[in-house]
From TrEMBL:
InterPro entries per the UniProt record, alphabetical: 3-IsopropMal_deHydase_lsu, Acnase/IPM_dHydase_lsu_aba_1/3, Acoase/IPM_deHydtase_lsu_aba, Aconitase_4Fe-4S_BS, Aconitase_4Fe-4S_dom, IPM_dehydratase_rel_enz, IPMI_cat
Annotated signal sequence range: none
Cofactor(s) named in the record: [4Fe-4S] cluster
Stated name of the protein: 3-isopropylmalate dehydratase large subunit
UniProt KW Signal keyword: no
Organism per entry: Plastorhodobacter daqingensis
Taxonomic lineage: Bacteria, Pseudomonadati, Pseudomonadota, Alphaproteobacteria, Rhodobacterales
Family: Belongs to the aconitase/IPM isomerase family. LeuC type 1 subfamily.
Domain annotation Aconitase/3-isopropylmalate dehydratase large subunit alpha/beta/alpha: ranges: 9-459
PROSITE patterns for the chain: ACONITASE_1, ACONITASE_2
Function: Catalyzes the isomerization between 2-isopropylmalate and 3-isopropylmalate, via the formation of 2-isopropylmaleate.
Length: 472
């Protein structure tokens, strides 16, 4: 009998091609996702060495970070650096014969939304991308993590990756979530508890009733931010919901291949008695709608709280908090709900899926953006956009005064024209609130789509439960 194994152990074991004395392994890679930012040098390396892409049919590229999201974007990209990167991806995709969704393709979008949507991401796979938020794909019970540009080249050339195994960490969310609490609140609450380094050296498996109860979209939101908690990857065991989501997608297996895949996928769970090196348990009922107040995703508090005093922290965090508050323009002791916002951004690979847009639209229906607040909704892919338009969500956003945009990373990272002005404060559904991330001097408060929608209506950070109470 083999020893009980975790889900991570199983996927790892199934992909080891070679193991060296010191435990370093060569892993087979099932899916390689590529975007324009981290791939140009990798393709250049192949070109110089006269090599081909080893498995073009397993390599999928899409431009997302640098693309404008305005309706006239077919006219091209003004910024030279951005244009060069996107042009290079166009050329590399063509020259190397990989799967490609160019800007003009309705399927184009943020790489982490496109992969699952097109059925490239499947349970039990190893998925890599030159992007830290590759963890998103772990929601399918895939081992998915970010890699650097030199590794991108290695995977392009060999379809393998040199890796050392991480330790196993279990994050269990027990019981039910309370009304107004979402997947985003779970993932932020976990980081608030463990810190941005709490997952360092680990692959996290999220489990428990509250995780099982999440939709696939919600599970992707949770796994997306595993990296913000320092983990190598985050994953969730596949179940009927996973299979249902995958079934019929363009690149999902069909017919007998589907049956065979399903039989394998059903073996992908952590065995009874398997050992975790670290365990964190949070009661679902204890999670409140949260927002970030600082410049790290761990700077998170329930919306009912106040801006903390730097002295309330220990060690190096005291100075970090002081600097954060200074950058964010906040005073200790002020109520989080008294923080006024100038902008609201709904989108990103964390919360740019159809369910996120539905949830935000539900709050915004028949309402208007507070005076002086600008709002932008950026669907995560062209297909999400179409669906949202068909469902009437786009009209709700537009009637509320939001700009309705084309798919891309947009404001999540100031690599395209969508940026905050210095000092501008934004309620955002993205995953990083770092200094200058959304534009130099811009101030970001991370939260769920419903919380962002609530802030849009009132013009300040708002407890979604208060809005819910009003509408009952
Ligand atoms: C540009 C890219 C390499 C980067 C990442 O790795 O995550 C970006 O997607 C981000 O979210 O900061
Ligand atoms: S949406 Fe944001 S977090 Fe996601 S890949 Fe793009 S820049 Fe990175």
């Amino acid at each position: 009998m083999t020893a009980p194994r975790t889900l991570y152990d199983k996927i790892w074991d199934d992909h080891v091609v070679d193991r060296s004395e010191d435990g370093t392994c060569l892993l087979y890679i099932d899916r390689h996702l590529v975007h324009e930012v981290t791939s140009p040098q990798a393709f250049e390396g192949l070109r110089m060495a006269g090599r081909k892409v080893r498995a073009p049919e397993k390599t999928i590229a899409v431009p997302d970070h640098n693309v404008p999201t305005t309706w006239d974007r077919e006219k091209g990209i003004d910024n030279e650096e951005s244009r060069i990167q996107v042009d290079a991806l166009d050329r590399n995709a063509r020259d190397f014969g990989i799967n490609y969704y160019p800007v003009s393709d309705i399927r184009q979008g943020i790489v982490h939304i496109v992969g699952p949507e097109q059925g490239w991401t499947l349970p039990g796979m190893t998925v890599v991308c030159g992007d830290s938020h590759t963890a998103t794909h772990g929601a399918f019970g895939a081992l998915a993590h970010g890699i650097g540009t030199s590794e991108v080249e290695h995977v392009l050339a060999t379809q393998t990756l040199i890796q050392k195994k991480s330790k196993n960490m279990k994050v269990e969310i027990t019981g039910k979530l309370l009304p107004g609490v979402t997947a985003k609140d779970i993932t932020l609450a976990v980081i608030g508890k463990t810190g941005t380094a709490g997952g360092t050296g680990y692959v996290i498996e999220y489990c428990g009733e509250a995780i099982r109860d999440l939709s696939m979209e919600g599970r992707m939101t949770v796994c997306n931010m595993a990296i913000e908690g320092g983990a190598r990857a985050g994953l969730i065991a596949p179940d009927e919901k996973t299979f249902e989501y995958v079934k019929g997608r363009p690149h999902a297996p069909k017919g007998a291949a589907w049956e065979a895949a399903l039989a394998y996928w059903k073996t992908l769970f952590t065995d009874e008695g398997a050992q975790f090196d670290k365990v964190v348990t949070i009661r679902g009922e204890d999670i409140a709608p949260v927002v970030t107040w600082g410049t790290s995703p761990e700077d998170v508090l329930p919306i009912t709280d106040v801006v903390p005093a730097p002295e309330s922290f220990a060690g190096g965090k005291v100075e970090a908090a002081r600097r954060s508050l200074d950058y964010m323009g906040l005073t200790p002791g002020m109520k989080l709900t008294d923080i006024k916002v100038d902008a609201v951004f709904i989108g990103s690979c964390t919360n740019g899926r159809i369910e996120d847009l539905r949830a935000a639209a539900e709050v915004l229906k028949g309402k208007k953006l507070a005076p002086g607040v600008r709002g932008m909704v950026v669907p995560g892919s062209g297909l999400v956009r179409l669906q949202a338009e068909e469902e009437g969500l786009a009209d709700i956003f537009k009637e509320a005064g939001f700009e309705w945009r084309l798919a891309g990373c947009s404001m999540c990272l100031g690599m395209n024209p969508d940026q905050l002005a210095p000092g501008e404060r934004c309620a955002a559904t993205s995953n990083r609130n770092f200094e200058g991330r959304m534009g130099r001097g811009g101030r970001t408060h991370l939260m769920s789509p419903v919380m962002a929608a609530a802030a849009a209506i009132t013009g300040h950070l708002t407890d979604i439960r208060d809005i819910m109470a009003e509408t009952v």
